[in-house]
Records
---
Amino acid sequence: MNDYQFEINLSSTKKQKPAFDQLVFGRNFTDHMFVMDYTEGRGWHDPRIIPYQPLQLDPSAMVFHYGQSVFEGLKAYLTEDQEVLMFRPYKNMERLNRSNNRLCIPAIDEELAVQALRQLISVDHDWVPNEEGTSLYIRPFIISTEPYLGVAASHQYQFIIIMSPVGAYYKEGINPVKIAVQSEYVRAVKGGTGNAKTGGNYASSLKAQEVAEKSGYSQVLWLDGKENKYVEEVGSMNIFFKINGEIVTPELNGSILEGVTRNSVIELIKHWEIPLSERKVSIDEIYEAHKNGQLEEAFGTGTAAVISPIGEFFWNDEKLVINNGETGEISRKLYDTLTGIQKGKLEDKFGWIVKVDEEKAVTSAI
Amino acid sequence: MNDYQFEINLSSTKKQKPAFDQLVFGRNFTDHMFVMDYTEGRGWHDPRIIPYQPLQLDPSAMVFHYGQSVFEGLKAYLTEDQEVLMFRPYKNMERLNRSNNRLCIPAIDEELAVQALRQLISVDHDWVPNEEGTSLYIRPFIISTEPYLGVAASHQYQFIIIMSPVGAYYKEGINPVKIAVQSEYVRAVKGGTGNAKTGGNYASSLKAQEVAEKSGYSQVLWLDGKENKYVEEVGSMNIFFKINGEIVTPELNGSILEGVTRNSVIELIKHWEIPLSERKVSIDEIYEAHKNGQLEEAFGTGTAAVISPIGEFFWNDEKLVINNGETGEISRKLYDTLTGIQKGKLEDKFGWIVKVDEEKAVTSAI
Ligand SMILES: Cc1ncc(COP(=O)(O)O)c(C=O)c1O
Ligand SMILES: Cc1ncc(COP(=O)(O)O)c(C=O)c1O
């Protein structure tokens, strides 16, 4: 089953684990990490699992200057039978390679990356939390490491995977968030890097986020960079609306990130035979739908929060309250279904789950 | 003159210097670096000069994931009297703070930064090369260092200055470069980060650069992200045209970087009483001007190359050759004047030069 062999160098000491019932997002890291190097000529080489430790980089390492970096985010879950399940890891590695292509970073072997995940999770198995709403957040990323000042693609990279036991991403949890529509700052534009998962997109989003937070909004709704008219994403999530019984989500247009959760939600909606359309959605349409009482639900989708219901939009000095600021029926059903599949409580009809320990899985099925 | 005192920890060994007559750009670094830390509550603190050394950063340090980083580039020159001159360093530190603002990074003390430069250059004085066309390239930069996964502004940063003795940035030197007009990929858009000097802008530019190079063009001419119509920049330089006797450059519009060289060129052109206009310039206008024989010169401006004449544009499957592919009169005059002032050979009428060692300067003037 697994032709990939990695050198494993186990940590001699183990860190103190945080209390799994009080986890915050992204602050605690497991005992080990995966690292693989790229140098021109040799390609990707030396995949290895080593103790979690600082990176040593020359101050001229290109990532510090020219932002050539990509990353992914996915989760693993502990089932009641103590099995560890990953949710659609191949999708993330595919997207990592699409991001790599846009950022001129050499492609990785996607199968190797999933096997690396598997082995790393096995090594740090006791870091997968089991409390309600918790999971092991996995962060694969690639940075350009060549020591060189000059605008060009790097000739050296590191591919690294770190892992963090996490609780809810938004302090609101599954409770609806309030969103400010952003029309001054732009997250991405066609021809830019909006559909790649690269640091610059997030750096450029901070200012609008700061402005929104100052007015008491927790996230930003991004409009397209060309016309400032079409809805693109919300915070770092994809966005869905329920308008007059139909689920509507912005079509992939080159500046929207192709979310794994978005894709899974679309498959579920289709499976449930609820009308769905992927198309351009203008902010005016949303405003009109709200005015006519047809904007029934709105929610963001992403690995971190899974489903994040939207209770209110702030646009043009007006507050548009959705579904009385409460979690809608579809949002709730999607959340329960997705987290149910992820935790192994519901049947995995779509083949989304990859078990970390396949052997054990087979044994227990006999 | 200098109220800033930095802790200085000198390197016990000195690196072997490269041959100053064979310098390439951005590959060799001096013996020391400047570092200052930021933590919330304490603000910027512990400014110090230390031996050039690797940075140690947690793999979750935010810069690796969310690209929150800014940088600057400026140069110092050795005069025939062995004095070291910096070119408009305050302008760079002002711009660094504008970039900081856009990227939600806490402002630095600009005077402190210039004094840091001064002391760092003094310490590594013998790294300033004196051969024709060489200089000491200075790279101040700020990176977000907080170990945290989550899209938010970091609460910890490092401000670092490293220096590199350099030769010509483009292998063409002052010889004209060939430029491909880019209409698929976009560098920046209004509302984005185009007018900030942050890594993401450069990362996103690599793909177009790669495409251009494959067709034998050394740089890309960027059009605006909204209409794909107006000229913005060339490679990582600002762009100027001479059309029918008038110098024309795209106006600052929020997506163009405000170059220090651009500003200096504008001051020189005004001083020479040559007609100048800062305005929108469409690629169609350039095409028409060329067809009518009125496109007399085109050149890029930037710290690295100072003036980089453009010999040819490739657009819509057509080659537009400018001034027979030769360096134009204004390009040459600007290059000679700017480098003359920078090297202390021409009078500094505009107050652009800051001497590294003011005391010595005063003494030698008596
Ligand atoms: C900008 C952006 N959009 C959307 C998403 C949602 O993607 P996914 O469902 O794969 O997590 C993410 C993050 O993960 C994101 O960063
Ligand atoms: C994108 C971009 N435009 C223009 C410039 C020119 O600016 P300056 O003249 O200050 O070097 C630079 C670089 O330095 C740049 O990176």
Note: Residues 5 and 63 of chain A are 29 Å apart (CA to CA).
---
Amino acid sequence: MSLELLTLSNPVFKSFTFWAGVLVVKMLGMSLLTAIQRFKTKTFANPEDLMSPKLKVKFDDPNVERVRRAHRNDLENILPFFAIGLLYTLTNPSAFLAINLFRAVGISRIVHTLVYAVVVVPQPARALSFFVALIATAYMAFQVIAAAAF
Amino acid sequence: MSLELLTLSNPVFKSFTFWAGVLVVKMLGMSLLTAIQRFKTKTFANPEDLMSPKLKVKFDDPNVERVRRAHRNDLENILPFFAIGLLYTLTNPSAFLAINLFRAVGISRIVHTLVYAVVVVPQPARALSFFVALIATAYMAFQVIAAAAF
Amino acid sequence: MSLELLTLSNPVFKSFTFWAGVLVVKMLGMSLLTAIQRFKTKTFANPEDLMSPKLKVKFDDPNVERVRRAHRNDLENILPFFAIGLLYTLTNPSAFLAINLFRAVGISRIVHTLVYAVVVVPQPARALSFFVALIATAYMAFQVIAAAAF
């Protein structure tokens, strides 16, 4: 029974795997986005990173810090989703619901990055994308708790 | 053999699933706790978040920073537990030991949040709750390494 | 078929489990490294942590901040690897390739910590170790996406 749950022939696992892969690529991209901003603004946090003896370490460039805040928000929200999405898959949920929850998390976290760190869009764009993913992840967590508690 | 390890009929997996769900909910709650402190103290990190033209971005409110430090400590400790707890479950450990290790991590991380970010309790309350979870997680990691190395 | 993928008789899973265990221990060690630097430099972030009434909270010690940057870099890179490494294992990849990818991530992340937070080594030591792990993780993520998308 459970053995098939973690194979790509299970559409729920297939969808989770797809979105987890996409979100890992997105998160790794944040490091490159940070590096681009660091070179553009010549903002380096370590003495050994300074490209010229005239530069000094700097921690307060608003463009660098914005990308870093978006990246940290990913750590806080996407990484717990990886754990709970897998456990939710193992509770054998309705495929329709599960696939749409994974889509909601995946798409809203991509939108969150775009409106936070790529092109700044006025609120409530970021708040909305943040809450869609948060609510979907919390719903899965409560389903997982309910399945394990009884 | 291994197929039953990731089903809720395995009491070790059932316990891991329960505590992972509880800790994901707890971690998502840290975002709400941060938001509450931000609104209470009118401390916003992005220009687009300012509710009034009189406000300026602010990064040094001690109440906001305290919740953020507690949240970051969760990232550093709870997220590795999610990975190692699942792998430890797959090594088919003694149910009694494994369930109590998961309980120790779950309860001590909840206590850590309470004494750090909700009601500040003098040390060594935070240090103790921190080390209980750290030692339990490290023990599981060493068991996982030993199982995989030989 | 899939049931054997998550057993230690699968050399790919065995290797993933080993390196995940090693990297969890390494990450937990960052907390101890931070604590050592905090006590050495008497840099504490919370009033309740101050060991003497003469001390004040301090956030800008370069030795403490260096370890914290290395630790955050672990959160950004090692934690996504835990998720994608498991999913990659479930795609049943070539054992030779997969085992060497896991080794590359494990070894390069240990080197990253050594040259960043233990003995500072001039660039490009840190950049190289960073990119080896990033490229290996991104490769696995693209393989996972390809397996799930078609």
Note: The helical segments of chain B are 11-41, 62-90, 95-118, 125-149.
---
Amino acid sequence: MDFFSLFLMDFVKQLQSPTLGFLIGGMVIAALGSELVIPEAINQIIVFMLLMKIGLTGGQAIRNSNLTEMILPAAFAVAVGILVVFIARYTLAKLPKVNTVDAIATGGLFGAVSGSTMAAALTLLEEQKMPYEAWAAALYPFMDIPALVTAIVVANIYLNHKKKRRAAGESLSKQEYLSKQPVAAGDYPNQEDYPSSRQEYLRKQQSADNRVKIWPIVQESLQGPALSAMLLGIALGLFTQPESVYKSFYDPLFRGLLSILMLVMGMEAWSRLGELRKVAQWYVVYSVVAPLVHGFIAFGLGMIAHYATGFSLGGVVILAVIAASSSDISGPPTLRAGIPSANPSAYIGASTAIGTPIAIGLAIPLFLGLAQAIGGS
Amino acid sequence: MDFFSLFLMDFVKQLQSPTLGFLIGGMVIAALGSELVIPEAINQIIVFMLLMKIGLTGGQAIRNSNLTEMILPAAFAVAVGILVVFIARYTLAKLPKVNTVDAIATGGLFGAVSGSTMAAALTLLEEQKMPYEAWAAALYPFMDIPALVTAIVVANIYLNHKKKRRAAGESLSKQEYLSKQPVAAGDYPNQEDYPSSRQEYLRKQQSADNRVKIWPIVQESLQGPALSAMLLGIALGLFTQPESVYKSFYDPLFRGLLSILMLVMGMEAWSRLGELRKVAQWYVVYSVVAPLVHGFIAFGLGMIAHYATGFSLGGVVILAVIAASSSDISGPPTLRAGIPSANPSAYIGASTAIGTPIAIGLAIPLFLGLAQAIGGS
Amino acid sequence: MDFFSLFLMDFVKQLQSPTLGFLIGGMVIAALGSELVIPEAINQIIVFMLLMKIGLTGGQAIRNSNLTEMILPAAFAVAVGILVVFIARYTLAKLPKVNTVDAIATGGLFGAVSGSTMAAALTLLEEQKMPYEAWAAALYPFMDIPALVTAIVVANIYLNHKKKRRAAGESLSKQEYLSKQPVAAGDYPNQEDYPSSRQEYLRKQQSADNRVKIWPIVQESLQGPALSAMLLGIALGLFTQPESVYKSFYDPLFRGLLSILMLVMGMEAWSRLGELRKVAQWYVVYSVVAPLVHGFIAFGLGMIAHYATGFSLGGVVILAVIAASSSDISGPPTLRAGIPSANPSAYIGASTAIGTPIAIGLAIPLFLGLAQAIGGS
């Protein structure tokens, strides 16, 4: 069978997966006005259990792994995380009616990783019996943190430049203004002080802004509930014998819990659509295109690692999916704290309402089908 | 062994079922003042998971079913749902100290279906290894929605008639009053307008009331959390391949989650007893007798379907139990919105404190025992 | 192999258990500032499910047990529960800067039992394949209730004596004061009444205090969420056939749910450390030493029962662990109600921040290792 028919068949098969079915089901019942509510406490514990399971799997695998294999994929993950922000900076941010800072924040969110999307990809890989390195999930923070750090740094540098320019313009016009005014020294004794003290204040501000502290951003990302659950799972997988709870609890419940979370994400995506209408329509275009572009870049880099160091095709799919995914849990609060002037409606709406459904419903089957077609051909 | 001893033995055996045990246990610990609390978020997710499981089972079964078999039982379900409201209208509502609108609302709630009670019946059927059509659970909305719609329509027609009569009496007495008064036209220029404008207002009101809109009630029922979870489950069972999550998650956890819900319902039943004391004691009599009467009517109709179209005895039990059950989740808010003048203490107290325990603890073993005795004799 | 090496090996092996791993992991991520939160609703349902499972196990076992075997261990449990309070009364309470009432309350909490710690011990016994009587978990209330009752009674007797002494001193000084004042009867007609009415009031108070009612304390303990879940489980295990839900739900989920609870307890322990700093540092010393002392006393009494009536070594470990444990759920509210003048920061901080981690992380492996060494040598 030729490459394209293989790919199409695999793609259609995956749409019947319960994972995608629950996502679409959630959107449909939200659109029909269902009053079904999954309580927030349940969402929180589901996210914990999914990422703990992913972490435990990874931790147990790392014990028996040759970690030098991980170096190239991890480096590519870092590269994609940083690149995604610059793509947003030089495409989305340049579009009409798009606020630059909002665009940079959106890039950060699309570069960051969604644990739920990754969980969905792992489930689909297992359903399709496609092998992957168990440590592949541990690539998550290598893409997530650089993306958030880069977005916050780039946004602050931009704001800084803008402020400098504005301050320069202001002091110029001030000087012009002053030069045009008849000055009566005795009357306004402190007048000349004003611009200079203002300039000093601005200079202080700028120097503070120039030194955007990177470590607090990294720390905040690592402390987020999703990432800290996964890292704890890795640590427990490495240093204890968690097989008994893993086999009786975290592993068997994984798919079912994921199905509930997919439902929630579908409902959430529908309810966030309204927020998107408030911002420029270019966000919609970006949210549809970006996951696929990011995914293809990562897929390409993953294939390099595949041929260079034997990185599995399943691993390539995971790398592509985490690139295609956009953060839903840990990303938004970190960005809100790091870029307080960005409009959360823009980046959260774009990610939750469009980015995530595209990543789960389109990018996962796409890259999985692609890998199967490459592996099968 | 004769029919009656067979029945008695089966009845006693079922009282040892954990499902009933947890229900009675909940009542006992609530009576003893236990501070045990099952958080509301847990109740919500349990109801979701039970009805999702029932829906998935049904949806997967419908794929392989001859749905023409379902026509007669579904028609009987609709008939029972409507009939139950009229029974309440012409028995409970006629009793002394019983408010007619409250009685109609109570009839609507007893005609509507409890997902938890149905889940308990399905579990007991499985424990007793009594086969039933997997689509039988899908009879739920066919009884639930007609009951709620009928109750709201009947209540509004009643309120309407009452208003008309009152308005007629009022305008009559107004006319009498006016005819008896010496009219001084110049003094009261707008006097004659008053009754006519009032009548117009009433006429508008009445015409609005006469057109009780049925579709919003149906829609609201379908959008309720319990029913929309079940319908989503049916859709996912029909259109996706949910076997993996069904077998690893929804199916194995079903009984355990049901045991927690039974405990909650037992505790809730005890705590609602107080509300019942506020309303006429006839509600207590109705709540004890009605589930059994409704169940026997449905059991009889089910037996007709059994002999006519081969509807299984297990299916007959399910039809009888959903008739005996009274709604606990989706019914009350729909009724509150549809009949705002009815007193929720009356209908919720009657259903939760007495109707549901009678349905689960008495009607399920009764109809199951009856079916086993019929099947075994 | 000699006794001590056997013991050391067992001790180290248990530190790799996931139960302890999650506890330590919780402390570590809390110390690192993780924002991971396990919602309160989840904690509540986990505690319910653990104690329901322990109760169901016990209830099913008691059906087939010779309960006369239970008499001696139960008597020892009562003795330890009472003794622990008196130990605190005559050690901790005598230390400098320690408030006597706070110390008695702390003793009550350390005498009371933690369901989660007991669950951890049962899990470790099963992991180590060490047999124990299934009714051993039912020793819980025999130690828990006497400890709380004793603490409340002892605290009230102490407060009473203090008040009497103070009242005596006060009325004396009042008399002295009065005797020194020039009395003008007409001016202060009610003056002499004051001390006498005050004394009457105090007398009434004292007589009320002298009759510290024991039954309400027992009742309140039994009604607490943890104990009433366990007792309900025992009752359901005794009187119904809960095997289906036990095998499909409560039993398989036990270890996994315990792992989440251990994580929560670790995080909670860390966050309570601050409270401990507010009270005298002797609480830290007490919290470290007391669990081991109490455990050794109970271990010794358990060994008497082992040689006298054949109480299993696993049962001895359970007796020692429930003595070492300090109550985390049901104890604090009972104590707060029974000894309102005690400072909760003192007893809750000591128990949660140090007592529980010591009991789980040190006492369980210690007594388990000791029993294995005794059994193996």
Note: Chain C has a mean pLDDT of 83.
---
Amino acid sequence: MKTIEIYCSFVKMLYFCRIYILTKPVMNTTPKPIIAVHGGAGTISRESMTPEKEVKYKSALREAVLKGSQILEKGGSAIEAVEAAVIVLEDCPLFNAGKGSVFTNKGTHEMDAAIMCGKTLEAGAVACVEGVKNPIRLAKLVMKKSGHVFLCGPDAVKFARLYELPIMPPDYFFDQFRYEQWMEAKKTNQATLDHSAEDEEGIILKDKKFGTVGAVALDAEGNLAAATSTGGLTNKKFGRIGDSPIIGAGTYANNASCAVSCTGYGEFFIRAVVAHDIACLMEYAGMSLKEAASKVVLDKLVKMNASGGVIAVDKYGNVDLCFNSEGMYRAYKRVGEKEFVAIYRD
Amino acid sequence: MKTIEIYCSFVKMLYFCRIYILTKPVMNTTPKPIIAVHGGAGTISRESMTPEKEVKYKSALREAVLKGSQILEKGGSAIEAVEAAVIVLEDCPLFNAGKGSVFTNKGTHEMDAAIMCGKTLEAGAVACVEGVKNPIRLAKLVMKKSGHVFLCGPDAVKFARLYELPIMPPDYFFDQFRYEQWMEAKKTNQATLDHSAEDEEGIILKDKKFGTVGAVALDAEGNLAAATSTGGLTNKKFGRIGDSPIIGAGTYANNASCAVSCTGYGEFFIRAVVAHDIACLMEYAGMSLKEAASKVVLDKLVKMNASGGVIAVDKYGNVDLCFNSEGMYRAYKRVGEKEFVAIYRD
């Protein structure tokens, strides 16, 4: 009888242990800080790329994630990291943002940018700003100092001057290649995406490369942030604004779900509220980051015939670089691990 | 035995009938077309309102829903109905949109507007446009003719001229009351919301009335649409853009969920992606229109200390006019029924 009692107690103990194991919260070790960047998506074919150009692109993407990663490693915030990474890409003439911005129909460079903090949901954005060396810095300034979220046009540049942000003369933004792109676009009176690829059926878009840069990050404190910057469409007119500076469309961060930066056919990304949709699919439909990004980019956007991609991170340190185009300039780096850099699908 | 067999057959029949009743789709009779409008929300107290003013406001709101409702009654589309209703409010000097737009810091009138079709997810928006008599018409033109979604500034006005939309001289927008509001705001160098009420703690916002107009509708074909138009903040500067023209924030329509037009403290409405959030709570979290609107306006926005409201309709013809402020100028009319018009909470 004694043996049976001991046996029963043992079984009970096992049973309760099982309940404990099944019900105790999963002990998440704090995920390592991570940063991801993109430099645009679209028809990026190996044929149109020389080995030298490929090295240059990859080196710039690497530099951007390393810059952001160094900040995260020292305990810096996700906001600081995404801003710094985007500045690297804005200062590089290869990408259509900041220095490398394309020409508008008037021969100017009108840039858009946005930044968002996932912890506070604070956000800052600018559209159609000329001469500002780093539009992402202006977007952050709007977030921190203006009491507003979204400023545009020459009056937004006045705000930049008020805080002594560097304003550059037009020749800083001059690039022979971009100029030729513009001349080409003017011939057909079309607004075109970044540089040339094959023809497109659309009325507006002659080619299929989406020039934008962006970054998303998770910091050591578990906070998320997103930032996006662009020169928009070559030969654009009428003060066109794309998805990049639209909170919810091209840029969104929320600690409850994820941080997202988009690159693609902006008009469709606005209509599909892409970045916020990914966040909502996670928060309300219980999808993982990968499932949510795939649902939007590989299903919804494809059905709309909208080309492009997103980079996204969540609070667990998951990262997803998802695109429905041929390629996307992209990279990510987890603190303490080697960076990943890629251009093509494979 | 025979009796038992008959009895069994009868029971079986009853059982299958039950299955049929439980599984057959709910036969929705097509919901009646409906339109709702708002003319802004905020601290609207009975004390500050004369009976004459109240009659004028209510009469304008009534005129707007009747105009939209007449279109819906004749089988017109939700897009046509919301555009027509918003034009009525833009042409009325009582509301801060179109003719009644407030003064910017420069003494100009810079208007924002957006429109969206729930069937196609097509959208059009404009920001910081001066002189355009009906910014909502320009937003619709952007949607239909520009190949873009969002245009801003003087270049967007060029697009309006190209299609010969009426452009008015500055005195068309002059209003003594608005002018005095502006003079008052200039004294303190503050950007303020619509006209005066009690003081506010915020740095930027002196008073608490949010001047915006908007409309949402469901048409006979079951399609939804939303439209919003505003003059923004009195004494605003730096090219500030609020939530009204941001697809997903101040304006959103999707036949899969609902159509929403917002009015409130724009910066918070952008950060909370209000209109799209309501749609996602319905589509992904299975909430009803009322639950979703309440969750966002009465819970999330209240926690952000963001005042304002929304009008929303869904594909079943449900309507919700939800606000966390003291009042909201609002009305709705279901085709064939009497209109509802209200200002205060009770």
Note: The CA atoms of residues 98 and 134 of chain B lie 6 Å apart.
